[in-house]
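User: My advisor, Dr. K., asked me to get a structural model of this assembly before our group meeting. I'm new to this, so sorry if the format is off. These are the inputs:
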Amino acid sequence: MPKRIPKILITGGAGFMGSAFVKLLIKGSFSVQGELPFVVVDRLTYAGDLKRLESVRRKFKFYKVDICNKRQIDSVFKKEKPEIVVHFAAESHVDRSINDAQVFIKTNVKGTQILIDACRRYGVKKFVYISTDEVYGKLVHGKFKENACFKPNNPYAVSKATADLLVQAYVKAYKFPAIIIRPSNNYGPWQYPEKFISLGILRVLEGGKIPLYGDGKNIRQWLYVDDCMRGIAAIMRKGRVGEVYNLGGIGESRNIDTAKLLLKVLGVSPEQIEFVQDRLGHDIRYSLDSSKVYRELGWKAQVGFIQGLKLTVDWALQHQRWLKSKLPDINKLYK
Ligand code: NAD
Ligand code: TDX
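Assistant: The format is fine. Below is the predicted structure of the whole assembly, which you can bring to the meeting.
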């Protein structure tokens, strides 16, 4: 019997993580004949780019749709009748949310509500919400488990926490078949060069320095994007409906150490660092306990931090033109 793949709709599939997920699904379906049942919905904001999916073009259906537009979402659901929805679409950058929170509340909260309601109307069997470690807020010692309290500290984190709570409320009130995933900081190929590692690479490729906020002692738990996608795919297939799963990376590192490692991998002087004004309300440290997903599904991050940085830098050297095409937008953001 040929294997049957359920129809999967991926929102934000032209973004950094969504596109990696679409490519993983397509790669895992190589033995399947005929049209693949993958549907991508993306508004193609500044962060969305179909170039990320060029290598798998024609292997999925694409709709340029805003998740906040109920009519458009309805028409996609009516036509495609997805069985599973994996929801990545969001405004995802903390600095932009501090500059202006409006679109974050609209897309991340209202957009999620519109999607959930469409899922309920069209009988979607599983809804996977990609939340974030930022919902828990900062911590100095230990690690956050899935039942930790929410204490988000910036407008982006608040918008993601609100949508996360909304999903939880629908699970409780209507037995809505959702699973929530909270990954730590992702990095890797095709990340928009507004985030720390991809921005650092771009600045060095331009002959500049890596900008470090404050004293550079803030800590992030870096997760290579392909590791994260393996985790999301495993949870989508075998995770328990109604549950929450953390996905934390291996590499917990102070930003200053991350910058130095990155400079070493890039083969440039460790002096290529510039201390700049700190981010408002900058969370000191994020760290997730991922023992639940390891216990239940055997997932753990596998790509070491140096290995992941090497893969990311190799990719960047081959895609300089793409990275540099984002410079006008980045220079406007960080002027
Ligand atoms: P990204 O900014 O690279 O991509 C977001 C995608 O969503 C883009 O393609 C964009 O066009 C699309 N989008 C935005 N608004 C939309 C709208 N109104 N309608 C339809 N599409 C819209 O983000 P990413 O880094 O790939 O993150 C994906 C998801 O994972 C987000 O929900 C984010 O909160 C979450 N997350 C990201 C990280 C990380 O480190 N990048 C970590 C944890 C969780
Ligand atoms: O230029 C910079 N200099 C710097 O020191 C930038 C852009 C960032 N930083 C610091 C701030 C953070 O401590 O680096 C760290 C990482 O910053 P970002 O890459 O902006 O990520 P972060 O704010 O931690 O949020 C990320 O992880 C959680 C993602 O952007 C979110 O989408 C995700 O939910």
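One thing worth pointing out at the meeting: Residues 102-121 form the longest helix (20 residues).

User: Perfect, thanks a lot.
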